[in-house]
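Researcher: Batch entry, complex prediction.
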Amino acid sequence: MSENQFEKHILCIGAGYVGGPTMAMIAAKCPQYKVTIVDINAEKIQAWQTDDLPIYEPELLDVVKKARGRNLFFSTEIDENIKKADIIFVSVNTPTKTFGEGAGKSADLQYWEKTARNILAASETDKIIVEKSTLPVRTASAMERIVNSNNKGIRFDVVSNPEFLAEGTAVADLEKPDRVLIGSQETAEGKKARQEIVDIYANWVPRERIITSNIWSSELSKLVANAFLAQRISSINSISALCETTEADINEVANAIGKDHRIGSNFLNASVGFGGSCFKKDILNLVYICESYGLTEVARYWENVVKINEYQEDRFVRNINKALFNTIANKRITLFGFAFKANTGDTRESPGIYITKKLIEEHAHVVINDPKALDNARKDLAGLEENLEFEIDPYKATHDAHAIALVTEWELYKTLDYEKIFSAMIKPAFIFDGRNILDHQKLYEIGFNVYPIGKAALTHF
Ligand code: NAD
Ligand code: UGA
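Model: Structure tokens for the complex:
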């Protein structure tokens, strides 16, 4: 198709975990639109054009291949592509601020604002700007003020369309979303812009799953969705600590409460703690927003979700230390998994990072095993190499180890030959299942001392 035969020219700024998969899905489902993704990171843009994509996400390559070169394009020419676009999705990173006012809590909007100024400088025609990144409530008004400060006679409408995909299941989440949320100003122009975005998703998402709202509700709903999800994990993890001291079993408790349809059974897996680039960042952002509006009690309430998560990570390491006779100095401890969850190579805010550092503080020798995340693990743990090994083979990784700490729920770990692993480990051999995915009774019978989360330990002494 030639340039002007496409119905719409869609641009996405930011080719990361969100920009890449969401735009690939739009392009695959809508051959009538031209979709271009730009990024300042040339290496990433290059990788998106190969079969070795810059992120690991099941089935993503098939979706990309369906549209790449047909109506899906990757580029580092940001200004030129802004000029040609009718609709610009902004999907740049919005990490927690590390400096100045709000450091450690509020969102760092420097990448976001730079994009707004880029759009303003390069545009020659009217555009719809779509907030895809997760942003503090009322960010759209700042965006509108920046872009509409032009004297070129250009009109910009800002729409919020937060993304709810989860890593590891991004393709399925995008193909069959629970809902798509699109917020705009409630003016005639705002509603018209909103409808244009509804029309894109309506190509494959049932209309009743496309929700529209005012722009502030849309921005806030994204933060609140993540806060509620993380709160569930902190709730079940807090109860896991109580189970360990009362001989109740966290899986049985989760099953019993989850059968109540008002509670529901999803997202009740006790774990070593939640990780990922967003839960902690978005809750802290919510906390900061509440504080800035003087809502101290509300801020404290949500802050505790993060505190319980830190407690859970800390408890896991303390349990290891305690079980290994209160000293892990010079002991070899193998981490099974380093990604923040299974089916991704992403390690951002992974509990594995905290656990490894804490174990090394106690002078343990840590061996990291993960099928997809070793490259990121090397970057996260740079400077600690003296006490570390990275080993892709789980059998070699556990050779001569005193203990295994399972951090990520990869299917692979359920299928290993634990008799073989046990025979090559130092005795007594310990296994700490931070995800409760292994067959604890069987491991115990093999000879392991087994420490699940939220259940009594199975020990031989
Ligand atoms: P990411 O770091 O993977 O990708 C962001 C990309 O933006 C990077 O490649 C970076 O180089 C690029 N970028 C930054 N400034 C730029 C600029 N001025 N011009 C062009 N490119 C620029 O981040 P992500 O995980 O994709 O997250 C993006 C946003 O989406 C965040 O706000 C996040 O909270 C939100 N989000 C993430 C997920 C997720 O699963 N990762 C899910 C839902 C929402
Ligand atoms: C999460 C949300 O699920 C997405 O809806 C959202 O779009 C995204 O954040 C975002 O804004 O970035 P993600 O972080 O990719 O997605 O993955 P989740 O499946 O939510 O898992 C987050 C963490 O919680 C992982 O470390 C996971 O192992 C942990 N978890 C999850 C548990 O410990 N127990 C559970 O029952 C579920």
